[in-house]
């Protein structure tokens, strides 16, 4: 069953005195319930516009974005409240996506308070402490500010904040690309473990194909506002059919010096021919 | 987006740290401010009435001595005791004025930020119009309507001070609104009021804290100017600005009469200004030493 | 002191130091105010010979960028000690004016953000020509050479595009322009600080290919600063790994990837997802890199190291020869072993 469905979504930006920019062209994307689906593209491909549309902060020019029967761009009142509670986001940069003035307790507990899921202060604190333990932090961190944590820990806080209200759909926008290399694996494992344990659905937006291959069961590739290839990630990444996907895959640096040098030789040869 | 702020921030951070980092400043400044506040409260009670208000032409323009620590003014009144007695009207009225127009400014900026494009347009045009009123002229008008007194001056200055605050704060709040954590809060389903009180305002007000403290000194000076043109504190009030302007004719023969209250104003302005910087470092986790 | 230091096995190379293009010895970098300075880099040494392509790999706070910038003396606030000999001249002893003549003329620099490195109000051509114009080269000559270097870097229709402004160029094109600025005065060394991090994968590949080509054709030495081990594999000959202000591992690129010596290098290689293989679960390095102001006692990596033992928590390990060649700073490769090997070698000789 599909939990999130984008149907023929178009978005055109009009700027004064310029050609209109078609940021999204007939996007069709389905996120099946209980899966981790990857959306891969380069900067300017339309990834950000898709996320903003799902957030309800950007209205598509045409098409529908349906979450569990609710058309997000038109949602109001109770429907909008349900979307806000059931769809949560984890952003790229945990430093700027966490309010620097709030303590961890307030940050993680905010959703519980706003959606009146836990109005009692001490019980809320206890639940936040549980959540922190779940993401690998501890109840000693409750009264600290995000600034005193490392990048990886901040992203854990952001994940705890998103998971606090028990979302059904988690949208992750490049959740590890701003983190230190040695910490990325921790956060990826955490996301994977949480998803397996709690069974929520994930839309994972990334530019790194290796990361996508590691954690996504399905993947869609977007190029200049269009989905050019979509399917199970093993199939798409092992035997890409679209030239763009092939080019992306070829460009991924290979951490094997022999293979990488051979690639470099080939590229130099191509360069000379061209 | 945050270009200007991010570029200035490191420089500003360095200066703030350079000043507030000097050992002792963190301790001395709050003590100074506390002393000034205490003075403002008890000053008029401890200063002998005769020394402050009674004219005594025979004693006029005496240089500082054991009897008159800071000398006497043109009417033979003791400058030291007048400064003590005047602390209340000078300091409390400036605090009142600055706090008053800051609150007005916050309200207006909040309406402009939250009310959408149209509200923003309308509010900011009103701000532009209000900015066109020079405080002195406006105060003259208020004084004409309410009668010249310190309270008319206070009202006039509150009514002319808010547009600058509103304009400044609206810019800062717009910038805060574009931060990712605001989007994050919005998609969590946070209400507008909560968004404002917990996310936007706390991250925008540190600019205002600094401005608030810096404005105090400025306000004392303008209040003095208003006294001079006759719409502010009325003689024989010992308000500091009025003391400076009152002594300006004898500055060559008896410089202490103008310099002493002038020094009191400068010291107060400095103390509050530094307090603003210290508060900023305290309030903003980003400025704290890691 | 210096002679003793050079005798220490801190180089993977056996080539004599006199031939070195760049020879950094015990570079130590401090920042912050005097009473409590922050040590950003401690005793960093590295040799580069003409045409060498070396990668300096590390995470945030490892000191890799600070090291690169300090070789160029870009941050006047840092206090530097040790020596940085470039073509036999100690850069740390030069006056600021002499240093200006080194920067951009003998050593070129490429930064991470190509937009920030370019002045938006000046045409591409002017910016590429600038180093030559400062050196007093005539305008027509500078224009000719700017066009040549842009041609070399694959900027199509270079003569016409020199009149364009930075915003009219794409990210990859801008990075070519920055590269052209670094190359125009024929430096013998380029320091590239994360040159591809801000770029998309395909553009990243193009820029690396270009740098590969240019450095090979010109016999140019390149010091590539990066956090991404992947980009290192196909491009460099030698890799130095930094962790929390120190060089902890240095080896040829093949050795580093096949037999990583330092537990940190081993962990890094396992923790990065690979496009050519999937694992059920990524192996991780616990914890996070320490802040330079709060390093643990002993080896800075010990709290995260699965192999740490008592000595690691007490003593900072020195760089010693690693079993597979190269050097490593880890108590798991004790001096005794190296000595035993040396003795064994002597016995064989006798």
UniProtKB/TrEMBL annotation, chain A:
Matches recorded under Pfam families: ABC_tran, oligo_HPY
GO molecular function, one term: ATP binding
InterPro entries: AAA+_ATPase, ABC_transp_ATP-bind, ABC_transporter-like_ATP-bd, ABC_transporter-like_CS, Oligopep_ABC_C, P-loop_NTPase
Keyword Transport listed: yes
GO annotation, biological process: peptide transport; transmembrane transport
Keyword list, A-Z: ATP-binding, Nucleotide-binding, Transport
Top-rank lineage group of the source organism: Bacteria
Coiled coil ranges: none
Family annotation (CDD domains): ABC_NikE_OppD_transporters
ABC transporter domain segment(s): 4-249
Family note: Belongs to the ABC transporter superfamily.
Listed name of the protein: ABC transporter ATP-binding protein
Source organism per UniProt: Arthrobacter terricola
Taxonomic path: Bacteria, Bacillati, Actinomycetota, Actinomycetes, Micrococcales
From TrEMBL, chain B:
Pfam families in the record: BPD_transp_1 (PF00528)
Segments passing through the bilayer: 21-46, 91-114, 126-146, 152-169, 216-234, 254-279
Subcellular location: Cell membrane
Every ABC transmembrane type-1 domain range: 87-276
Domain of life: Bacteria
SUPFAM superfamilies named in the record: MetI-like
PROSITE patterns per UniProt: ABC_TM1 (PS50928)
Record's protein name: ABC transporter permease
Gene source species: Arthrobacter terricola
């Amino acid at each position: 069953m599909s939990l999130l469905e984008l149907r023929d979504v178009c978005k055109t930006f009009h700027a004064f005195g310029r050609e209109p920019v078609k940021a999204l062209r007939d996007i069709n994307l389905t996120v099946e319930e209980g899966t981790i689906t990857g959306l891969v593209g380069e900067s300017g491909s339309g990834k950000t516009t898709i996320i903003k549309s799902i957030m309800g902060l950007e209205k598509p020019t045409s098409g529908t974005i349906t979450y569990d029967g609710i058309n997000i761009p038109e949602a109001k009142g109770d429907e909008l409240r349900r979307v806000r509670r059931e769809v949560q986001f984890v952003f790229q940069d945990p430093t700027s996506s966490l309010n620097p003035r709030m303590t961890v307790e307030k940050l993680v507990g905010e959703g519980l308070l706003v959606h009146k899921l836990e109005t009692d202060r001490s019980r809320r604190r206890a639940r936040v402490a549980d959540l922190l333990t779940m993401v690998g932090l501890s109840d000693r961190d409750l009264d600290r500010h995000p600034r005193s944590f490392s990048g990886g820990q901040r992203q854990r806080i952001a994940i705890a904040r998103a998971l606090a209200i028990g979302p059904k759909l988690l949208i992750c926008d490049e959740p590890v690309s701003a983190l230190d290399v040695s910490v990325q694996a921790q956060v990826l494992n955490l996301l994977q473990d949480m998803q397996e344990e709690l069974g929520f659905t994930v839309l994972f937006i990334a530019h790194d194909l290796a990361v996508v291959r590691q954690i996504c069961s399905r993947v869609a590739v977007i190029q200049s506002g269009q989905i050019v290839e979509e399917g199970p990630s093993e199939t798409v990444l092992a035997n890409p059919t679209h030239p763009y996907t092939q080019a992306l895959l070829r460009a991924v640096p290979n951490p094997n010096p022999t293979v990488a040098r051979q690639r470099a030789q080939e590229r130099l040869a191509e360069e000379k021919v061209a | 987006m945050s270009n200007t702020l991010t570029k200035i921030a490191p420089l500003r951070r360095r200066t703030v740290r350079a000043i507030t980092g000097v050992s002792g400043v963190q301790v001395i400044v709050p003590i100074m401010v506390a002393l000034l506040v205490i003075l403002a409260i008890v000053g008029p009670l401890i200063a002998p009435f005769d020394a402050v208000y009674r004219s005594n032409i025979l004693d006029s323009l005496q240089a500082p001595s054991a009897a008159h620590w800071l000398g006497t003014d043109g009417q033979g009144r003791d400058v030291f005791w007048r400064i003590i007695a005047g602390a209340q009207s000078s300091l409390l009225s400036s605090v009142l004025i600055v706090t008053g127009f800051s609150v007005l400014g916050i309200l207006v900026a909040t309406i402009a930020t939250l009310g959408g494009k149209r509200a923003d347009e309308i509010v900011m045009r009103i701000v532009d119009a209000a900015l066109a009123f020079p405080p002195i002229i406006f105060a003259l008008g208020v004084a004409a309507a309410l009668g010249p007194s310190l309270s008319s001056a206070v009202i006039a200055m509150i009514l002319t001070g808010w547009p600058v605050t509103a304009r400044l704060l609206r810019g800062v709040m717009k910038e805060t609104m574009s931060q990712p954590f605001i989007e994050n809060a919005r998609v969590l389903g946070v209400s507008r009021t909560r968004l404002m009180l917990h996310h936007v305002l706390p991250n925008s007000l540190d600019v205002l804290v600094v401005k608030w403290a810096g404005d105090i000194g400025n306000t004392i000076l303008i209040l003095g100017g208003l006294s001079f043109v006759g719409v502010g504190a009325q003689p024989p009030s010992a308000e500091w600005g009025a003391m400076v302007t009152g002594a300006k004719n004898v500055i060559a023969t008896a410089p202490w009469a103008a310099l002493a209250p002038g020094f009191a104003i400068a010291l107060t302005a400095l103390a509050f200004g530094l307090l603003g910087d210290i508060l900023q470092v305290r309030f903003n986790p980003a400025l704290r030493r890691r | 002191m210096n002679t003793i230091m050079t005798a220490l096995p801190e180089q993977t190379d056996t080539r004599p130091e006199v031939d070195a293009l760049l020879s950094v010895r015990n570079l130590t970098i401090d920042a912050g105010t005097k009473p409590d300075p922050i040590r950003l880099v401690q005793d960093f040494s590295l040799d580069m010979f003409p045409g060498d392509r070396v990668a300096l790999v590390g995470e945030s706070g490892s000191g890799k960028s600070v090291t690169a910038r300090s070789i160029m003396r870009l941050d006047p606030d840092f206090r530097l000690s040790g020596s940085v000999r470039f073509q036999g001249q100690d850069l740390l002893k030069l006056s600021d004016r002499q240093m200006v003549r080194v920067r951009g003329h003998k050593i070129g620099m490429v930064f991470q953000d190509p937009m920030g490195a370019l002045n938006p109000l000046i045409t591409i051509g002017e910016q590429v020509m600038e180093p030559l114009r400062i050196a007093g080269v005539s305008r027509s000559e500078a224009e000719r050479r700017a066009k040549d270097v842009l041609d070399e870097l694959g900027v199509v229709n270079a003569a016409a595009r020199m009149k364009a402004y930075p915003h009219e160029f794409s990210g990859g094109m801008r990075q070519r322009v920055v590269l052209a600025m670094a190359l125009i005065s024929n430096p013998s060394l380029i320091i590239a600080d994360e040159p591809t991090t801000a770029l998309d994968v395909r553009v990243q590949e193009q820029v690396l290919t270009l740098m590969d080509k240019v450095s090979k054709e010109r016999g140019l030495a390149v010091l590539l600063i990066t956090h991404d081990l992947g980009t290192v594999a196909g491009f460099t000959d030698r890799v130095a790994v930094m962790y929390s202000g120190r060089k902890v591992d240095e080896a040829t690129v093949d050795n580093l990837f096949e037999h990583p010596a330092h537990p940190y290098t081993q962990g890094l290689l396992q923790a990065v997802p690979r496009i050519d293989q999937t694992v059920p679960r990524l192996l991780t390095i616990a914890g996070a890199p320490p802040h330079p102001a709060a390093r643990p006692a002993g080896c800075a990596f010990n709290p995260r190291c699965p192999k740490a033992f008592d000595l690691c928590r007490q003593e900072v390990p020195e760089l010693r020869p690693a079993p597979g060649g190269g050097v490593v700073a880890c108590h798991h490769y004790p001096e005794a072993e190296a000595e035993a090997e040396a003795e064994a070698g002597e016995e064989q000789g006798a």
